[in-house]
Fold this sequence. Notes:
Blueprint: H1 3-9, H2 20-44, H3 50-78, H4 86-107, H5 116-139, H6 145-168, H7 172-203, H8 215-233, H9 238-256, H10 267-291, H11 298-325, H12 334-355, H13 360-387
Helix pairs in contact: 2-3, 2-13, 3-4, 3-5, 3-6, 3-7, 3-11, 4-5, 5-6, 6-7, 7-8, 7-10, 7-11, 8-9, 9-10, 10-11, 11-12, 11-13, 12-13
Amino acid sequence: MNTASALRAYRGPAVFSLGLRPFFLFGALWSAVAAPLWLYAFLAGGPVGLGWHIHEMLFGYTGGVVAGFLLTAVPNWTGRLPVVGRPLAQLFALWAAGRAAMLAKALAPSLADAAWPGIIDSLFLSVMAGLIWREAAAGRNGRNLPVAVMVSLFALANIGFHLEAEAGGVASLSTRLGLGIVALLIAVIGGRITPSFTRNWQIKRDGPLPAVAGRFDAAALIVTAVALTAWCVSPAHPGTGATLLTAGGLTLLRLGRWRGHATLTEPLVWILHLGYLWLAASLILMGLSIAAPRLISPSVGVHALTAGAVGVMTLAVMTRASRGHAGRPLVAGRTEVAIYGLINAAALSRVAGGLTPSLYPLLLTVSAALWSAAFFTFVFAYGPMLATPRLARP
C-alpha cells in the first residue's frame, strides 16, 4: 500500500486523516488567540508574560505547523505510510496538552515554579523528533537526514527553554537556537518547495522556469547555517553580523534565480517567494543590527523573521497544502489574497514598530490585530475544508 492508498482506505474522523489537518487548523486557531492575549498582558498588565508569548509563538504555534507539514510531506519523501487515525490523534493530544500546560502555568501563580508543565510540553516535540528519525532511517534517503537533525535540535531547544527559564527567567540562548532552527528549516524546505511549485506552475503555461538547484544553492545554505549558528552562540560579534549580511545577500540572489516575478498572476505561488524574501530581509536586518546597533534594534531583524518569514511562509504553505489535500483547485481566491495581505501588513507593522519607538505601542496593537485577523480568516475559511473528507476529483 502506498501513501495515496492508505489515505483512501482511512475511515475515521476526517480531521485525523492527514497530519496537516489537525495541526494547521488548531495551530492557526491558537496563533489567532495567543496574539491578543500577549497584547493584553503588554498593555494592561495581564498575567501572560513575555516568556509565554515567545514560547507559544515559537515552539507552540510554529512547532505544531512544522509537525503538520512534515507528517504530510515525509511520507512522500520516503515512500512510507503516513501517520493517520489514532496515532495522529494521540500525537495531536500531546501538542494540545502542552498548550494547556503552558497556559495554566502562565495564569496560575502557584504553578510559577512547577516543573510538570515544561515536562508535558516537551513530550510533543521529543516524540515528533523520534518519529522523523524513524521515517528517515526506514526510507533510507540521506537527503532527509538534515531535516531529522533540525527537528531534534528544535526539540532540544524547547527543553533548554524550560531549563533556562527555571534557572534565570530569560531563555535567551534557547530562544535564539529555536529561531535559528526555524530560519534554517525555511531556508531548506522553502528552498525545495518554492522552486518546485514555481516550476510546476510555469510548465503548464510555458513560462520561464526557475534555475535548477546546484552548487550555488548548497553554498547559500551552508553560509546561512554558519551565520545562524554564530548568531546563536555570539549574537553581538562583528563577525556574526558580517556572516548574517552575507547569508542574507546569498538568500536574496538564490530567490532571484527562481523567477518569482513571472508568477504574479497566481497568489498561491508568489506568496512563497514573498515568504522567502522575508527570510532574506530578516538575515540582512539581523546583520545590520550588529553592524549599526544605534540605527537598528536587534528586535527588528528578529520580528522580520518571526512575523515576516515564519508568519508569511507558514500561511503560504498552509493554504496551498490544505487546498491540494482537500481536493480543491490550486487557485487562490479573494480569501487567500486577504489572508496574505493581512499577514504581510502585520509583519510590516511589527518591523516598523521596532524602527519607530514613539509609535511602538500603536504599531504593536495594529500588528497583533492584523495577525489575529489573518489566522482567524484562515480558520473560518479552511476549517470546514480540513474537518471534512477530501472532495473526489473527476
